[in-house]
Amino acid sequence: MNEITPIKPTQSGPTCTAPMSGPVSQAEDGQALCARAPVGMLCELTHRCPLQCPYCSNPLELERVNTELTTEQWQDVMRQAGELGVLQIHLSGGEPTARKDLEDIVKTASESGLYINLITAGVTLTRERMGKLAEAGLDHVQLSIQDIEPENADRIAAYKGGMAKKREVVKWVKELGLALTINAPIHRQNINSVPAMIDFAVEVGAGRIEVAHVQYYAWALLNRASLMPTKEAFMKAARQVEEAREKFKGVIVIDAVVPDYYAKFPKPCMGGWARGIVNITPSGRVLPCHAAESITHLAFDNIKDKKLADIWLYGDAFQKYRGTEWMKEPCRSCPRKEIDFGGCRCQAFALTGDATNTDPACSLSPLHAQWAKVAEEESHSAPPAFVYRRVGGAKTVPAPETEPSGV
Ligand code: SF4
Ligand code: SF4
Q1: Is any atom of ligand 2 closer than 6 Å to the C-beta of 342?
Q2: pLDDT tens, 241-270?
Q3: Among the four residues 53, 124, 368, 384, which has the most C-beta atoms within 10 Å?
Q4: 130-166 burial code (b ≥16 CB/10 A, e <16)
């Protein structure tokens, strides 16, 4: 699982970071300025995954299988989401197909009127299971790829044979008439494959590809020096995306997520804290963003104890940074504060120790220059070994002597 972008159901294809909008209203008690319902709900059904991507957005402390919500509890979440007015759900993980009851959850979500997106690495799927999921009401598949070059893909994911399997999965998705997005997390060890990854998405008939530069939270922050591309490599990839957009106009939608370290202003992370997206962890903790648990002083409600609507509107963690009242300078008086909402709270906390600080991704942050220097230095140094994402974490393997796709 990497990140999340709301899907436009009218598109044939849609991962994981576009601005999220929706009706913004004053709640009855005048406290909660927010959309009455989230546009999208990200359901991390499990943290189990056969892959071990070093940029995974799951927390460093992965939740164990014996803490996961039951089938009935997930089905109740789907019904509550439908009643609340959520439009689309993203079934994610870990690897959501590790749940044997995925078809049951999909069926209930479909009956609840939700548009259903499956975010998967694809390696555990079979043709038969794909058919059952489509029959249960699945609308859309978002398939992640690690690289086009199979050996490098295997090395990045610490999993053998993934790319060949993904080529099978995309055929099944198309045969079943489901919408398809290719999700390509980009970093220094695959950045030269951007054109080939776009070509792949076109070749397999995807409606959309997300060229998603890795965002540095969780495992990606731990592996930042192994993953950070140089600014030159990033600029080259950005030009390649522009050329491909021109070449494939009307054929495929190409979305790009810019790496914060090379941006002038931050992105409106999650479309603004608690404005349009809600995230539920495998054990039922309800978060305003998939990385929110990294802000260590926040307390999160559990769906086992409270209703989704109650948590969305009034939960402490949701209220904490919703809107703009919590902001300090320079955000407080900035004309962009309703555009980017001060960037990412998790990144501000991780890099400054205070989640109410301006995200250092912003060029107006007093910490920006220092932060950009880190990217400059790390991206020009030899990459250290990956710390692979696995329970208990931190077993390292040697990085290649030369970067396979690097500059
Ligand atoms: S390890 Fe890779 S495939 Fe598995 S959840 Fe994380 S990013 Fe997705
Ligand atoms: S100062 Fe704050 S609101 Fe203004 S651009 Fe930077 S992050 Fe956005």
Answers
A1: yes
A2: 999 999 999 999 999 988 888 888 998 888
A3: 53
A4: beebbebbbbbbbbbbbbbbbebbbbbbbbeebbeeb
Evaluated on CA atoms 262, 263, 269, 271, the torsion sign reads negative
255 CB within 6 A, ligand 2: no
Model pLDDT, residue 64: 93
- Per-residue pLDDT tens for 95-122? 999 999 999 999 999 999 999 999 999 9
CA distance 262 to 7: 26
- Nearest partner of 262 among 237, 241, 284, judged by Cα: 237
Q: pLDDT band for 377, please (50, 70, 90 cuts).
A: very high
Among 33-47, 203-217, 246-260, 331-345, which stretch is predicted with the lowest mean pLDDT?
Answer: 33-47
Instruction: For 158-202, list the strands marked E by DSSP.
Output: 179-186
CA–CA gap between residue 26 and residue 133 (Å, rounded): 38
List, in sequence order, every residue forming a beta bridge with 255; answer none if it has no partner.
210
pLDDT attached to residue 370: 87
Structure tokens at 280: 């539920």
Pocket test for ligand 2, best of 351, 362, 363, 368 (most atoms within 8 A of CB): 362
Query: Nearest ligand to the C-alpha of residue 391?
Result: 1
Confidence band for 34, pLDDT divided at 50, 70 and 90? low
Q: How far apart are CA 77 and CA 370, in angstroms?
A: 43
Six-digit token string for 235: 């600029």
Q: What is the pTM of this model?
A: 0.89
CA distance 275 to 288: 8
Instruction: Please tell me whether residue 71 adopts helix, strand or coil conformation.
Output: helix
Q: What is the phi/psi pair of residue 166, to 5°?
A: -65, -35
Cβ–ligand 2 distance for 326 under 6 Å, the answer: no
Q: What pLDDT was estimated at residue 23?
A: 35
CA atoms of 183 and 181, how far apart (whole Å):
6
Which pLDDT value is given to residue 271? 87
Rounded CA gap, 145 and 121, in Å?
7
Ligand 2 center to residue 216 CA distance, Å?
Answer: 19
Q: What is the pLDDT of residue 13?
A: 27
Ligand 1 center to 95 CA (angstroms): 7
Closest Cα to atom 3, ligand 2: which residue? Answer: 337
* Encoded tokens for 87: 């439009």
